[in-house]
Amino acid sequence: FIGCPMPFVNWHMKGYELAETINRRSPRVVVFDEEFIDKIIEIKGKLRSVEHWVVVGGKAPEGMISYEDPIANSPNRKPEVNYILALNPYTAGTTGVPKSSNFYDGVGYLQSDLAEGPRIDLKEYMKLLVKQFSFVYWYGGTEIIDEISHNRA
Fold first, then answer.
1. How much is the pLDDT for 141?
2. E strand segments, the chain
3. 99 to each of 21, 29, 31, 61, 93, how far by Cα in Å?
4. Contacts 24+ apart (CB under 8 A), 30-37
5. What does the alpha-carbon distance between residue 109 and residue 118 come to, in Å, rounded to a whole number?
6. Is 13 exposed, middle or buried (0-12, 13-18, 19+ CB in 10 A)?
7. CA 56 to chain centre
8. Contact 118, 140 (CB under 8 A)
9. String of b and e for 131-141 (b: at least 16 CB within 10 Å)?
10. Strand 65-66 and strand 29-33: pairing?
11. Beta-strand runs (E) in 38-148
């Protein structure tokens, strides 16, 4: 609802991978769980575009915002916006340099009331969508683990 894609990142990423991934998106805000405060503090100085640090689920350290504070001060109504599901998972470790995997773009299009439709016919679109999911569900893509970093594919 705030008009931006939400790039999910692999929480197993090392500091330099995480900084690289975040810098590639040039976000102004980073939202993270309190569990990752130490990891964020470690890379905070390497993140060029971030203006706000929002901690979910706990007390925010100096210079960061507790997620609950803006929520408590927000109006009790949904904003007038278009709905676009913008999942944008990132991958690293076993796949080299951190990058957007765009794994769920096909699903995002189906959930959007504004996105441009695919530029292929429905048969080809459905074939590609099934292939995206087949790697995870039918071929066990989530069970592939890198022996060195222990990251999942």
1. 66
2. 29-33, 52-56, 65-66, 90-93, 96-100
3. 7, 19, 19, 29, 10
4. 30/54, 31/56, 31/67, 32/56, 33/57, 33/58, 34/58, 34/59, 36/11, 37/61, 37/64
5. 8
6. buried
7. 15
8. no
9. ebeeeeeeeee
10. unpaired
11. 52-56, 65-66, 90-93, 96-100
pLDDT in tens, 43-77: 999 999 999 999 998 889 999 999 998 888 888 88
Q: Phi first, then psi: give them for residue 22, nearest 5 degrees.
A: -65, -40
* Cα separation, 116 vs 129, whole angstroms: 16
Angstrom distance (rounded) from CA 75 to CA 100: 34
* Beta strand 52-56 pairing with 96-100: unpaired
Q: Counting every residue, how long is the chain?
A: 153
Cα 5–Cα 36–Cα 60 angle in degrees, nearest 5? 90
pTM score above 0.90: no
pLDDT digit string (tens) for 98-117?
666 655 455 555 656 566 66
Q: Rounded to whole angstroms, how far apart are CA atoms 90 and 148? A: 19
Which residues, in sequence order, are CB contacts of 99 under 8 Å at separation 6+?
24, 90, 91, 92
Tokens describing residue 80: 């007038």
